[in-house]
Amino acid sequence: MKSVFLNTYSRFEFEDLLQSFPPVGTETVAFNRSCYRVLAEELISPEELPAARRSSMDGYALRAADAFGASDNNPAYLECTRRLEVNEYPDFTLQSGECAWIATGGVLPQDADSVVMVEYTQEIGSATIEIRQSVAPGENMMERGEDATIGQRMILPGSRLRPQEVGLLAALGITEVTVHRRPRVAILSTGNELVAATEHPAPGQVRDVNAHTIACLAEEAGGEPIHCGIVGDHLEELLPALKSALAQSDVVFLSGGSSKGTRDLTIAALSEIPGADILAHGVRISPGKPTILARVGTKGVVGLPGQVGSAQVVMAVLGRPFLRHLAGDHQAFSQKLRPLRQARLGRNLYSRQGREDFVRVKLEPGPEKTLLAQPVMGKSGLLRSLLQSDGLLVIPAEVEGFQAGEDVEVWLL
Amino acid sequence: MKSVFLNTYSRFEFEDLLQSFPPVGTETVAFNRSCYRVLAEELISPEELPAARRSSMDGYALRAADAFGASDNNPAYLECTRRLEVNEYPDFTLQSGECAWIATGGVLPQDADSVVMVEYTQEIGSATIEIRQSVAPGENMMERGEDATIGQRMILPGSRLRPQEVGLLAALGITEVTVHRRPRVAILSTGNELVAATEHPAPGQVRDVNAHTIACLAEEAGGEPIHCGIVGDHLEELLPALKSALAQSDVVFLSGGSSKGTRDLTIAALSEIPGADILAHGVRISPGKPTILARVGTKGVVGLPGQVGSAQVVMAVLGRPFLRHLAGDHQAFSQKLRPLRQARLGRNLYSRQGREDFVRVKLEPGPEKTLLAQPVMGKSGLLRSLLQSDGLLVIPAEVEGFQAGEDVEVWLL
Fold first, then answer.
1. Confidence band for B1, pLDDT divided at 50, 70 and 90
2. Which chain B residues touch A198 with a CB distance below 8 Å?
């Protein structure tokens, strides 16, 4: 162990520490299995897209000059020489005075430069079309290469692939992409009182809850949970279990009792691991203060508080963005895309300054389409208040509290 | 086909139509594979939780009466008779004047009724503890059964299981639950110009993009996508493909060209299917107006617009909540938990009244921690504007538009 800082950090400082870990390695996946994975390479277009000039409307392809000034009172009349099939590649040149029926997606003939929508046209006799609106060159059509040109940088590394990015891969015929692996998340529970969820606890014992809530949250954040079981509150049990967890994962989440003894034990175990560096001994958020962060080589060890509710808050606030960061997402800690809601506070709420408070709230319909955030009270350690909550109301460190009726920010759980 | 309504519906009316479909059937899954699935049964607690009276703090278990009125100036002195292990089930009765060291999670001895936090205590000599704060009976401890009593209804059918609900299952030792199946979502593309994403298009052809964006969105909404391939714009191809898609799925998403011809073809194919009932011929949203909804038996058929961007908006606005509804989620259409953000509009935006407009926007940091919503312009049919967008700004049907600087609601994409 290199050093011990007995400091605690604000959430923002703690986030900086988390961001100092490198992302995990890469793998190649089929494009249609890549959704919500993070791109690890620059995506370069191998083709032009669209590959041809295509209509974006049902109507008539024409030369814009032929309908210049056309209107209801002063229509233009063009000869419709062809009806183009949507999958047809026209090998003819549109002459002046001519137009061609074209469907959405159809390829424009040579020398046609625009499309007039069918709504502004009328068939007059067998082949004459009345055009009642002028169009600008390029109107109602897509130019060749307007979406992508050959060699164009389309998606940057570190981008999470959404359905629309997968759609781009399909459009370009890119059938494989290099993405970051899913971070392997070892989950280790410590506590003499814990038994597995599948067991029947003896008097004094309880089933391990944290391992399962953490696994769900890790999986949701793109990680691959690895259950490493339960160990007792003894260094001789914890140390080999921690080493084994580190060997098979990219990051370890240790969830122990929240008593001081368990925290000291985690620190003691880390101290025995060569090269381990304890980065933080706490974070100034509530609940969640006794969170430990250490680095072992390139891998992280997070010591979560043992209380179910506290552990869940730390996972939601810090653990999930950390896992997204490890998965290579360059927006992992961005506030921009965090699922949150504005709401009005249902009653006064006080907070100790100097720490950021996360208060569990239920969201109820309020007046005028607003949402009312109703704080969910409950003893720490109970599951009930977690079950009743829709989200976490954030009281910033520098704020003393909020009054009933104030606008507040709620992070959805 | 029973009837054809040539009406279009508002989004809210359309949502009512979607909600008239029954949820899919059920299956039994292991509790630790149940996260984000929808519970199909009432979850009844088989046990008391906590099973014993437990401390929620590190400190001393005592009889509150023994520390009545205790303070810094007037401490109480108790004899510490035991140090309780966290997994110990104490078989003794705490006498008046006694206390016992207890860690968070530890079981209280009989006749102890509260815990004083270690911070308000001091060891005086070997067995005497100075108590500097009074506590109320029940303080800093959890009563037996406070989270759950035997036979108590814990989770209602139709609830989506979040990490905290999975935690409750673990705590109660419930290892299997009955949830709704994932809806099987058949995806069928129509268009003479379409080829598979893995193929090289001939001149005039394009690769099928919609099948893949729809599959991603369906999977995200809890569905199980089934790719049913591409068929040409001919009734003799579409009709058997549609029948086959219906036979192997709970709902069919048909994505065709957006030309009038394709829409007519979809209607024609549905008209040939015995018992098919066309519920809607359009929805008053933009983009997305030419959306078709039909019922065949208990199954739904949704005809999406062919333009990639329009299809994605319809999937995000209607398709995803529809799939959540089919998966049994009783909050599928609730506004409460939709991922959205408040933002300030970057520039004036006008809208035609009478329809709800969904405008693609990019979110940028604005002044004072606000977000600026910048409309992303781009020709319909291009992928580029979809790739640049973070969300959809909603302009309600009764609103003419928004001014730059106004607060607007953005649905994250």
1. very low
2. 173, 175
Q: Are the Cβ atoms of A383 and B87 closer than 8 angstroms?
A: no
What architecture is the B340-412 domain classified under in CATH? Beta Barrel (2.40)
| Model pLDDT, residue B257 | 60
Q: CB–CB of B104 and A259 under 8 A?
A: yes
Q: Is some CB atom of chain A closer than 8 A to the CB atom of B237?
A: no
DSSP label at residue A4: B
The 10s digit of each residue's pLDDT in B17-39 is: 999 999 999 999 999 999 999 99
Q: Kindly report the nearest CA distance between residue A297 and chain B, in angstroms.
A: 30
What is the model's pLDDT at position B2? 41
B184-190 and B251-255 beta bridge pairing:
parallel
pLDDT score of A77: 97
Q: Is B383 on the interface with A (CB under 8 A)?
A: yes
Average pLDDT of the segment spanning B211-226? 96
Residues of B in contact with A201 (CB under 8 A): 51, 173
A residues 302-331 lying closer than 8 A (beta carbon) to B:
306-308, 312, 315
Q: How far apart are CA A20 and CA B199, in angstroms?
A: 42
**Which ipTM value was assigned to this complex?**
0.93
Spatial CA neighbour of A258 closest among B306, B164, B86, B167: B86
CATH architecture of B11-25+182-326: 3-Layer(aba) Sandwich (3.40)
**Bridge partners, A293 (sequence order):** A280, A302
Contact pairs from chain A to chain B, CB under 8 Å: 274
- Which residues in chain A are contacts of B339 at CB distance < 8 A? 339, 412
Residue A412 contacts B, CB cutoff 8 Å: yes
Q: How far is A79 from chain B (nearest CA, A)?
A: 22
| Residues on chain B touching A60 (C-beta within 8 angstroms) | none
Residue B216 with chain A: CB contacts under 8 Å: 35-36, 162-163, 166
**CB < 8 Å to B331, chain A:** none
Q: First vs last Cα of chain A: how many Å apart?
A: 36
- Summarize pLDDT for B155-181 with one digit per residue, the tens: 999 999 999 999 999 999 999 999 999
Quote the DSSP letter at residue A31.
Answer: G
- In degrees rounded to 5, what are phi and psi of residue A320? -65, -50
- The topology (CATH level 3) of B54-142 is Molybdopterin biosynthesis moeA protein; domain 3 (2.170.190)
Report the residue of A12, A34, A83, A104 to disrupt the B interface, i.e. the one with the largest count of B CBs within 10 Å. A104
β-strand A292-296 against A276-280: which pairing, if any?
Answer: antiparallel
Torsions phi, psi of B30, nearest 5? -65, 145
CATH class label, B29-49+148-180? alpha beta
Which residues, in sequence order, are bridge partners of residue A278?
A: A4, A294
**Mean pLDDT value across chain B:** 93
Q: Is the CATH code 3.40.630.30 the one for domain A26-44+157-180?
A: no
Indicate the pTM of the whole model.
0.94
Choose among A324, A255, A325: nearest CA to A292: A255
- Is there a contact between B133 and B139 (Cβ–Cβ < 8 Å)? no
Helix (H) or strand (E) holding A253: strand A251-255
